[in-house]
Amino acid sequence: MSTDLGSATDPDVVLVGGGIMSATLASLLGVVAPDWSITVFESATEVAGESSDAWNNAGTGHAALCELNYTPSGPDGRVETTKARTINEQFQVSRQFWSHLVRTGLTGSPKEFISPVPHVSFVTGEGGRTYMRNRHAALSAEPLFSGLEYTDDPAELAQWTPLVMDGRDPAQVVAATRSVAGTDVNFGALTRLLLEQGEARGVQVHTGQRVTGLEKLDDGRWKATVTDRRDGEQRTVRARFVFVGAGGGALPLLQKAAIPEIRGFGGFPVSGLFLRTRSPELVSRHQAKVYGQAAVGAPPMSVPHLDLRLVDGEYSLLFGPYAGFSPKFLKAGSMFDLPLSVKPNNLGSMLGVARTEMALTKYLVTELLQSRKARHRTLIEFVPLAEQGDWEMITAGQRVQVIKQDPKSGKGVLQFGTELIVGSDRSIAGLLGASPGASTAVSAMLTLIEKAFPDRVAARRSALEEAIPSYGRDLSSDPALLAAVRAETMQTLELNG
């Protein structure tokens, strides 16, 4: 990876941002367009330093195995599984592609970026137990969730999650599900491996170089203005296609590109705080990811969870999230990011959300006013015997939630997901939003390629199907293919425990 822009030439494709999305797109383009030249520009001194960094992305390995916000319950108690099924299917696509890359020479061991970790959902109270029973019954009927276990026996739960059960009132009603098919993913490590592999086949990766402008030229190409972060020197490169995968920095750049498709879009930044412990005793007793339910009125991003993490060979536990607020769109961004993103074409959307999302506003204010003792009390609700001295507070990355116009009402709505923006002439695209983001990166970038380069998909379909055996097919309706895919990815990614 180079900090010198002098070697940069006019490529076929410019990827803005050195995170998991750009790295994934570069790898997929290596399948569908192996002869294209690709250049990546990352403003930081290293790639994967923002949302893709392991400590900035606590919700790892999203497969909807334990995240309760993906399985909402209706008024009649019926649990809806559509979103969970979609996310799990997308994660299976990611696993297939990673497996293909490992088979074809991705450097290092899969254990550098993925490891098996059981995923547990945990609830309390009679209402919680009823919901969990219904959820288990609904998901168990789905092939993608086969093997999901249920218990409301405190003794069995004490074996699944000792830290969560130790010291808990024995009279409290508890219930949980567990999937031993869960994983922990270090997307920072994966991003670096993908880009290193890309460089080996000719992808140019430039760090310390910020793309500060995008201008459409008369010949249909895009002129990217690139500023060297060290000395402020500016250069320009021209490309046939630009992808803006700069996390929170994507919205301002797409606004500068002035494409009609970005009109009406805004962003609301939310900072995450987590309690972390590296205590060997605590870590050894909690070998799982445990997700609970968000408090009444709290947004989906506030779901409490106690995660086992493996980062750079060291295990630790994270608990949170606790919300913070900063107007920055990136952790290393500017305090003016939010105000400068407000434009005449998105002012209505922004004001509309400000009026309708009072619950989010109340939640953020309450979180910001919490003392360390108050945050510890929240931890104790999840881990009754937790000692304050064992845990330290860390600041995670910035998440910029998407604000968009509802096409029916014209009002602004806040979206807790991702949004793919593709220009009408298919020469530019960008990704906005957050969770489940990284876990579904391969599906997101496949969708981009299908929209922007349908001719390449048609010409290279057999190569895509070799890289992703389920490409164009539905795993949930093909049990034989699902079984074959699972067996192959588990073996190649070394997920057999």
From TrEMBL:
Pathways per UniProt: Carbohydrate metabolism; tricarboxylic acid cycle; oxaloacetate from (S)-malate (quinone route): step 1/1
Entry keyword Oxidoreductase: yes
BP term (GO), one: tricarboxylic acid cycle
EC number: 1.1.5.4
Keyword annotations: FAD, Flavoprotein, Oxidoreductase, Tricarboxylic acid cycle
Gene Ontology MF, one: L-malate dehydrogenase (quinone) activity
Recorded superkingdom: Bacteria
InterPro entries from the UniProt entry: FAD/NAD-bd_sf, MQO
Cofactor(s) recorded in Swiss-Prot or TrEMBL: FAD
Catalytic activity from the UniProt record: (S)-malate + a quinone = a quinol + oxaloacetate
HAMAP family recorded: MQO
UniProt-listed NCBIfam families: mal_quin_oxido (TIGR01320), PRK05257.2-1 (NF003606), PRK05257.3-2 (NF003611), PRK13339.1 (NF009875)
Family to which this protein belongs: Belongs to the MQO family.
Name of this chain's protein: Probable malate:quinone oxidoreductase
Originating organism: Geodermatophilus aquaeductus
Gene, per the UniProt record: mqo
